Amino acid sequence: MAQFLAHIIGIREVPTIREVNVRAAPTITAALVTRLPVGTRGLRVVEVREDSLAAKLTGKVYQWFRLALPNGGEGWVRDDLIEVEGDGTSFGYPVLLVPAVAFSIQRHAAAVGGGVNPPPAGDASAPTARVIGKSGVNLRAQPINGHVIARLNFLQEVTIRGAQPQGGTSNYTWVEVDSPAGRGFVRDDYLSIQGDASAFGLSRGDEYPAPMKNRWWVRGFNINQNPGEPEHLGWDFGAQTGEPILAGPNGGTVTQVSICRKCTPDRPSTLMHGLSLSDPSIFNDEGWGFGYGTYVIVRYDNHLLPASTRERLVRRGLGSAHLFVLYGHLHSASVSSGQTATGGQPIGTCGNTGNSQATHLHLEIRAGTTLTPQWWQIRNGLLDPGVLFLR
Questions:
Q1: Cα–Cα distance measured from residue 284 to residue 305, given in angstroms and rounded to the nearest whole number
Q2: How far is Cα 55 from Cα 330, in angstroms, rounded to an integer?
Q3: In 3-state terms, what secondary structure has residue 104?
């Protein structure tokens, strides 16, 4: 595990300050041990404590860092004078992949060594979110290519404070969040939102939950919105093979079940048969499920859809449309065509069948007004799954 290291930066707004004081205790009134030049780097953090006199700036109590000094001794430096990086989890800080000003980071109460301020009480009405990127996600100081403040771990909970669209043709939104690493921006597709975030242009919270309980985000919907990214007609969630896939909470009607005929237990995907993911023959081959492998299509009737979904359909001129959801690349299907699926009923399991390179669920949505259309007949009704689902 990487060490937690400090770098002396002084006060950047006052460039004439060339050295910082190192104290014998965590307060500005303690005896002076030595002075360190601005630019000194790589000092190992030994301990962190809050200011012993509870001195604060803009309402936040200073934290003091006990550092291993170049001369072999130790001393305390205040958090507004240093940057830190590395694994700060033992001291109540996150893992920081790049240096960040220590004062800008909220220290949490799980730290070792005492003297920790609990995080300020949050607004109980504020919506929250969990990180669903399996390897975590960057917390940035600004949207798009902003400075990386920290790496937030998978399933880390954050509080939503704002949001702004990326702009242009992009369908991405950057969400401003409060986290243990401080405030910053995360792209919305790496967050599973909990609660009503409609005030920020995000989900209302009444949408259907993601169809698998144990899952992570892989990639989203892209039809000419995000230049440079490949076309993709739905959402992909990763999961372990066999993870149950659940019908929407209000139930629906199974309109089609297709079992992949060319998928075998030892070689379920096209890649395992020597075909490339972009081979056009796959998408015209019923034996491969037209690329979807084993799949199930469920119709969710208009009058049973969440209120926010019906409003979105009205805005698109689809006020009377039903939504047809294709669950693709399944390992197995547990329903039959024409069956009524009750709310939350397992309809299959996650797999790696068809045009797939790893176990995942492909979720695709099309709108239509007839009850049992062929999938190809409603291609013009293709919609981003966010019209109905939470991530």
A1: 32
A2: 58
A3: helix
Report residue 44 as tokens: 């190992």
pLDDT tens column, 66-88: 999 998 889 999 999 999 988 88
The per-residue pLDDT for range 129-178, each reduced to its tens digit, is 999 999 999 999 999 888 999 999 999 999 999 888 888 788 899 999 99
Query: Quick one: which of 222, 141, 144, 240 has its CA closest to 386?
Result: 222
User: Which segments within 259-314 are labelled E, that is strand?
Assistant: 294-300
Q: Residues 297, 300, 305, 306: is their CA dihedral positive or negative? A: negative
DSSP letter for 314, please: H
Tokens of 177: 């969040």
What does pTM read for this prediction? 0.70
- Residue 330 · residue 245 · CB < 8 Å: yes
Query: How far is it, in rounded angstroms, from Cα 206 to Cα 280?
Result: 38
Q: Which of 194, 223, 226 is nearest to 210 (CA)?
A: 194
Question: What is the CB neighbour count within 10 angstroms for residue 44?
Answer: 14
What stretch of H or E contains 186? strand 182-187
Provide the pairing of β-strand 216-219 with 235-238: antiparallel
Alpha carbon distance 366, 292 (integer Å): 15
Helix (H) or strand (E) holding 379: none
